Amino acid sequence: MLRSIKNLIGYPIDAVDGRIGKVKDALFDDRYWRLRYVVADTGTWLPGKKVLLSPSHLKSPETGWVGNGFPVDINKSEVEESPGLGTDAPVSRLFEEEYAKYYQLPLYWVDPYMYGSATGPAYVPQEPEEKTEADRQAHEFRMRQIAHHHLRSVHEIIGYHIQAKDDSFGHVEDFIIDDQTWRLQYLVIDTKNWLPGKASLIDIGWVDEFDWNDKTAKVDLLRKQIEMAPRFDPCEAVNRDEEHRLYDYYGKPKDWETPAAPMF
C-alpha cells in the first residue's frame, strides 16, 4: 500500500510487549530510494539515545477508527540493549554494522534493493584472509560509494524548495512510500505559493539531486510541466488509476514497468 511518510510521523510504535514511543523521523538512502530506518522518539524511557528501527522489523502501519499504530516484531528489552547512539549523533557505517550484527540483519548495502521481496544473508563476521589487489580496489570503490551516498532525513528535506530545469517552483511537502517494499515512490510538491491549494506528484526517480547547502530538490522537469500536472489530493489514497494519469501526463515509462535505476 502507498502511504504518506509525513502522516506516519507521530504514529505510536508498539513492540510485541508494549509501547516503545512514536515515529519521529525516517531515514532513507538517496541512491536506491529505500527506507533504511524509522527513528523512534522514546520520550523519557530511553533519554539521550537515538533509537533506530530497521524495516526488517516493521509491520504494516495500522489505521482505522480504533486509532493509528506502527507495530514492530521485536520486544522492548531488545531495543533497550541495542547499540547506543546519541540523539544528535550521525548514523555512521560503523554503527550500522554493529546494529546489523546485534539484530542479525542483512547488510543492506550488499543487496541495496532490499527490503521487501529482496532479502540477503544475515550479518556474519568474516575471518581475516589475505586480500588480493582486486579485493583492495573493490573495497576502496565501496568506501568511496559510502562516502558520497549516505542516509537522508525525511524531516530535514520536507520544506526544501523545488528547482525545476528552468525556475524555482514550490517546495517538498511529503514523500509517498510503499509499505511492502519500503521504497520511496513519489515526491509530493506543494505549489501553493504560486498556485493556491495545488499539490502534485512526481516519480522519485525524476529527482536529480538534493542540494543540502541551498536546501533545494533539483528535478528533471520544467516549471510549466509541474504547473499543469494533475492535481494531487493528499487526503486521498494513491491508487493505480492516479498513477496511470501521472505517467501518461508526463509521457514517461510507468515505474512498475521499468524500475528506476540508481540516481548516481
Feature tags:
7-stranded mixed sheet, 264 residues, 6-stranded mixed sheet, Photosynthetic Reaction Center, Chain H, domain 2, 2 domains, 21% helix, alpha+beta, single chain, 7 helices, disordered C terminus
Q: Can you characterise this structure?
A:
This protein has 264 residues and is an alpha+beta fold. The protein folds into two domains: 2-125, Alpha-Beta Complex (Photosynthetic Reaction Center, Chain H, domain 2), CATH 3.90.50.10; 158-250, Photosynthetic Reaction Center, Chain H, domain 2 (Alpha-Beta Complex). The chain is 21% helix and 27% strand. The protein is built from seven helices and 13 strands. It has helices at 5-8, 76-80, 93-103, 133-148, 154-157, 223-227, 240-250; strands spanning 2-4, 12-15, 18-29, 34-41, 51-53, 70-71, 151-153, 161-163, 168-178, 183-190, 199-203, 207-211, 216-219. The strands form two sheets. Strands 1, 8, 9, 10, 11, 12 and 13 form a seven-stranded mixed β-sheet that branches. Strand 10 and strand 11 (199-203) form a beta hairpin. 28% of the residues are buried.
Brief rundown of the structure:
The protein contains seven helices and 13 strands. The protein has helices at residues 5-8, 76-80, 93-103, 133-148, 154-157, 223-227, 240-250; strands spanning 2-4, 12-15, 18-29, 34-41, 51-53, 70-71, 151-153, 161-163, 168-178, 183-190, 199-203, 207-211, 216-219.
